[in-house]
């Protein structure tokens, strides 16, 4: 019997493991994933709010940790000599692309600069290039990029920040971005510490769309900036992304412990009838049908709710917990959870919708 401790706020855990007689699953709140509760566990499935360090893993039976995250800056690898660690890199790339594509409605420009070309940055770059945007990127880890390239990217009318976070190393990204083109649209879905929001707000006239914040998950109201749009770390927070990440965890656990019976999660599809005339008219005017996308992802609506709640709830005793709760509330279906009923849509427009992530009903 393999004993697995998992963060209870991860969806689909029951579907993934409850059927198996080889697995004993214990679901805990993230703040109860502690050393004492991991003593007899063989594996841990966690989120980024759980810091993987010596205090957590010392003198436990842990053999495998799977973090359902893209980033790994919450992990102290020095304490994992005898524990295998795996993350779900790239599993939320589609979800972050959906958020970014939706954010582009707030700029009429068709040129975008991307900071960081990892799994997410490359997804955004490739898809937006297909959809008619001029895209340039800065990633010194992958290319021979210098400060001139970085400045060229930061002078684009739209900037998407998708960098990993580091304070040290050859290319530290702590407060990597402190100024941008004054009239630009700045979208950060990576880490709050990569961008100096307050300095930019003070010195530039750009519109900041902020999804990630300083000091998560232990942030407080002082960490927030009154941005053009503010959301509580939801860019990659789709059920499709979480399902994909959990499938990676299932595969890793199955292989590592040589389990006989495991199963992958199938996408939860919602079948949608589409007003094809209106959709075709919108696609004639723009490569990304923003009005069509709003019925699936309306980031301004999320921002309005988030800002309103922050102003209303002035006496929140634990803002960190509050932030986690509202983030959980804002979980959404991904574009790939929708299967569109299309009978009179051109192949060209279907290609655009497919690039955005939608599925189609089979005829």
Protein architecture, described:
This protein folds into 3 domains: 2-87 and 238-257, Rossmann fold, CATH 3.40.50.720; 93-230, NAD(P)-binding Rossmann-like Domain (Rossmann fold), CATH 3.40.50; 270-360. Helices cover 32% and strands 16% of the residues. The protein has helices at 13-17, 54-57, 93-103, 119-130, 147-154, 197-203, 239-257, 276-285, 290-294, 299-312, 319-329, 347-356, and strands at residues 2-7, 23-28, 43-46, 64-67, 84-87, 111-115, 134-138, 158-161, 185-188, 207-210, 229-230, 270-273, 338-341, 359-360. The strands form 3 sheets. The chain has a 6-stranded parallel beta sheet, sandwiched between helices. It has a 5-stranded parallel beta sheet with strand order 2-1-3-4-5, covered by helices on one side. The radius of gyration is 21 Å and the shape is globular.
């Amino acid at each position: 019997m393999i004993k697995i401790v998992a963060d209870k706020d991860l969806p689909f855990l029951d579907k993934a493991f409850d059927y198996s007689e080889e697995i004993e699953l214990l679901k805990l709140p993230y703040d109860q994933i502690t050393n004492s509760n991991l003593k007899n566990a063989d594996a841990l499935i966690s989120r980024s709010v759980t810091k993987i360090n010596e205090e957590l893993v010392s003198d436990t039976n842990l053999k495998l940790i799977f973090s359902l995250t893209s980033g790994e800056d919450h992990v102290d690898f020095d304490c994992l000599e005898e524990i295998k660690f795996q993350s779900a890199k790239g599993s939320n790339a589609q979800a972050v692309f959906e958020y970014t594509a939706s954010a582009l409605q707030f700029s009429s420009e068709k040129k975008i600069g991307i900071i960081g070309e990892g799994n997410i940055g490359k997804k955004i770059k490739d898809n937006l290039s297909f959809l008619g945007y001029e895209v340039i990127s800065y990633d010194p880890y992958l290319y021979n990029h210098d400060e001139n390239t970085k400045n060229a990217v930061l002078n684009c009318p739209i900037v998407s920040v998708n960098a990993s976070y580091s304070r040290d190393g050859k290319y530290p990204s702590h407060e990597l971005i402190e100024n941008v083109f004054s009239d630009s649209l700045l979208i950060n879905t990576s880490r709050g510490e990569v961008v100096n929001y307050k300095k930019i707000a003070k010195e530039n006239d750009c519109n900041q769309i902020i999804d990630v914040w300083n000091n998560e998950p232990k942030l407080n109201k002082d960490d927030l900036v009154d941005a053009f749009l503010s959301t509580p770390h939801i860019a990659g927070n789709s059920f499709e992304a979480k399902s994909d990440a959990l499938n990676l965890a299932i595969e890793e656990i199955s292989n590592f412990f040589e389990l006989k019976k495991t199963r992958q999660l199938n996408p939860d599809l919602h079948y949608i009838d589409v007003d094809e005339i209106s959709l075709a008219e919108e696609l004639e005017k723009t490569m990304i049908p923003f009005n069509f996308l709003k019925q699936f992802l309306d980031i301004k609506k999320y921002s309005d709710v988030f800002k309103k709640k922050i102003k209303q709830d002035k006496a929140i005793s634990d803002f960190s917990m509050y932030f986690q709760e509202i983030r959980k509330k804002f979980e959404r279906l991904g574009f790939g959870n929708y299967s569109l009923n299309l009978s009179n849509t051109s192949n060209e427009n279907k290609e655009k919708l497919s690039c955005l992530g939608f599925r189609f009903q089979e005829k």
